[in-house]
Specification:
Length: 346
């Protein structure tokens, strides 16, 4: 058998040396290394050899197999190189042409503004915490003073998960705002707390120039002794000054959220019409950027904070709306429609 292997090696090598194209190379591979090749048959037949012959023959056959495989890939390389050399000679291949440039990725405009927003709050002493996007009804609604059948639930058209509790009720959802994290954080800490929560939220609603079904919010809240509405206003107006510059106007108006008392919304003067009124701002001259207020005593009680000792403020802001105001983007749908002409501008 050893002699037979030697013969095979010599024959295979001499044939391989004369091969000059990939097609013949493949035919060579099939005939010397394929399933029906002599070598494969020999390897299969090893078992029937007498034991004393089997070991030496097995080693030699396997050695030949890997030698032929190696020779095959060397020949393959050599054929490729020869093809390139021929193409250069014939002038078909111009190696002096510049290659294809690799395009560099960049951060999405939402993430860029999100980082700027977080930096401003961190500089004011807030800590950044993240939370789950799939949330329990309890944290998203119940613990925030929005019980089942409360009309305020309509304000947050909800995407429910296909999951029911033991009573058969749907109680798991995609969070509609970042406010559930107020509860999760306060449940685990004692005042003073000063936290911001950036993250994605989801609403089952029709999109238009200022509304998306998935968007980002930044929640913020602070609880301590003697925190007042003046602290809330000071924090948010300072934030707006740092993000948009001194010349932009900000406005507080009364608003209703079941988990704050009193509640407000804050708006910035419209960047398109500078407050005169246009289609983007529904002729009001203002674009709403956040909801806020003093944390409701019931909410504090639910997390075992004593509302006679502690008070706190909370706010929740739309991140894309901030980016729209800062960079003059007039349609929120541009953010997630993956148009590179838009994304490359940031
Ligand atoms: C809330 O989500 C409250 N959780 C905010 C809050 C937090 C109030 C803490 C009081 C205390 P609202 O639904 O208004 O509120 O949303 C807050 C901000 O998210 C809005 O001001 C707006 O900037 C942004 N926003 C709301 N809906 C959309 C949407 N569909 N697309 C893009 N941004 C939106």
């Amino acid at each position: 058998m050893i002699n037979k292997l030697e013969e095979l090696r010599a024959k295979a090598l001499s044939e391989l040396d004369s091969i000059k194209d990939p097609k013949s190379l493949e035919a060579w591979r099939i005939s010397y290394l394929g399933r029906k090749s002599e070598l494969t048959q020999m390897l299969r037949g090893l078992a029937s050899l007498p034991v004393e012959e089997r070991r030496a023959a097995g080693a030699a056959a396997n050695q030949l197999k890997s030698f032929l495989e190696q020779s095959l890939s060397q020949r393959e390389e050599a054929i490729k190189e020869a093809e390139i050399a021929r193409a250069i000679e014939k002038g078909k291949l111009d190696v002096t042409l510049p290659g294809y440039p690799t395009t560099l990725g960049r951060l999405h405009p939402t993430i860029q503004i999100l980082r700027q927003m977080c930096d401003i709050f961190v500089a004011m002493g807030f800590e950044v915490v993240e939370g789950p996007e799939v949330e329990w009804d309890y944290y998203n609604f119940e613990a925030l003073n929005i019980p089942q059948d409360h009309p305020a639930r309509d304000m947050w058209a909800t995407m429910w998960m296909d999951y029911r509790n033991e009573k058969g009720e749907r109680n798991m959802l995609l969070r509609t705002h970042t406010s559930p994290m107020q509860i999760r954080v306060m449940e685990n800490r004692q005042p003073p707390v000063r936290v911001i929560v950036p993250g994605k939220v989801y609403r089952y609603e029709a999109t238009d120039a200022t509304h998306e079904a998935m968007f980002y919010q930044v929640e913020g809240f602070a609880v301590d002794k003697n925190i007042t509405m003046a602290d809330l206003k000071g924090t948010l107006f300072e934030f707006a000054r740092r993000l948009f510059g001194k010349e932009r106007k900000a406005r507080f108006r009364c608003d209703y959220f079941p988990f704050v008392e009193p509640g407000v919304d804050m708006a910035i003067d419209c960047f398109v019409c500078k407050g005169a009124g246009c289609s983007l701002c529904s002729n009001s001259g203002w674009i709403e950027i956040l909801g806020a207020g003093m944390i409701h005593p019931e909410v504090l009680r639910r997390v075992n904070y004593d509302p006679d000792i502690y008070t706190g403020f909370a706010f929740g802001m739309g991140v894309e709306r901030m980016s729209m105001l800062k960079y003059g983007i007039d349609d929120i749908r541009l953010f997630y429609s993956n148009d590179l002409r838009f994304l490359k501008q940031f």
